[in-house]
């Protein structure tokens, strides 16, 4: 197999090592694994993990930053019910307010199979696909089949505006 960029069936070019259809979540997980692999290498572990980690980190994960709505005002604080939350499908984020003035935010992508979570009620963020539920306080799993917490997102409150950091 020749090295360098590969042209795919649709005519687009892809960086070597990048996998078609790879999700942002996959990239983030890959980045985490790369960190672990780097640690293992520092401790004299095998170099097998370095190749995979290196290609993950170099496959252009920053391109989607703006598409997530980073830096944009998502909502006014008053739109987020105390003890509940709201799903922002365009920004793929769910913002909750477990207590008055305390805001939490998570990726709206379910960690089970990637559906968008659909609602917030009863202190949980709920996925309509297979029934997973996540705590509004920390995104941890309350009800399987998901077995990983929702990924945390950072929001700031500026005046009355909730901003995605
Ligand atoms: S994708 Fe959310 S529960 Fe399966």
From TrEMBL:
Keyword tags: 2Fe-2S, Disulfide bond, Iron, Iron-sulfur, Metal-binding
Cofactor(s), by name: [2Fe-2S] cluster
Ranges annotated as biased composition (Polar residues): 1-11
InterPro entries: Rieske_2Fe-2S, Rieske_2Fe-2S_sf, Rieske_Fe-S_prot, Rieske_Fe-S_prot_C
Disordered: annotated segments: 1-26, 47-75
One Pfam family matching this protein: Rieske
Top-level taxon: Bacteria
SUPFAM superfamilies in alphabetical order: ISP domain
Rieske domain residues: 72-164
Biased composition (Gly residues): 55-69
Keyword DNA-binding part of the UniProt annotation: no
PANTHER family: CYTOCHROME B-C1 COMPLEX SUBUNIT RIESKE, MITOCHONDRIAL
Purpose: Iron-sulfur subunit of the cytochrome bc1 complex, an essential component of the respiratory electron transport chain required for ATP synthesis. The bc1 complex catalyzes the oxidation of menaquinol and the reduction of cytochrome c in the respiratory chain. The bc1 complex operates through a Q-cycle mechanism that couples electron transfer to generation of the proton gradient that drives ATP synthesis.
Entry protein name: Cytochrome bc1 complex Rieske iron-sulfur subunit
């Amino acid at each position: 197999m020749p090295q360098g960029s590969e042209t795919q069936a649709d005519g687009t070019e892809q960086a070597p090592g990048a996998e078609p259809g790879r999700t942002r979540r996959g990239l983030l997980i890959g980045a985490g694994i790369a960190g672990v692999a780097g640690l293992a290498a520092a401790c004299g572990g095998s170099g097998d993990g370095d190749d995979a980690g290196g290609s993950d980190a170099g496959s252009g994960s920053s391109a989607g930053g703006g598409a997530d709505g980073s830096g944009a005002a998502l909502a006014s604080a008053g739109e987020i019910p105390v003890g509940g939350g709201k799903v922002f499908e365009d920004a793929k984020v769910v913002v909750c307010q477990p207590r008055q003035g305390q805001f939490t935010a998570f990726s709206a992508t379910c960690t089970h199979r990637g559906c968008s979570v659909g609602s917030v009620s009863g202190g949980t963020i709920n996925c309509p696909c297979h029934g997973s539920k996540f705590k509004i306080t920390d995104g941890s799993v309350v009800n399987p089949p998901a077995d990983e917490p929702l990924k945390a997102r950072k929001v700031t409150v500026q005046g009355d505006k909730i901003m995605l950091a």
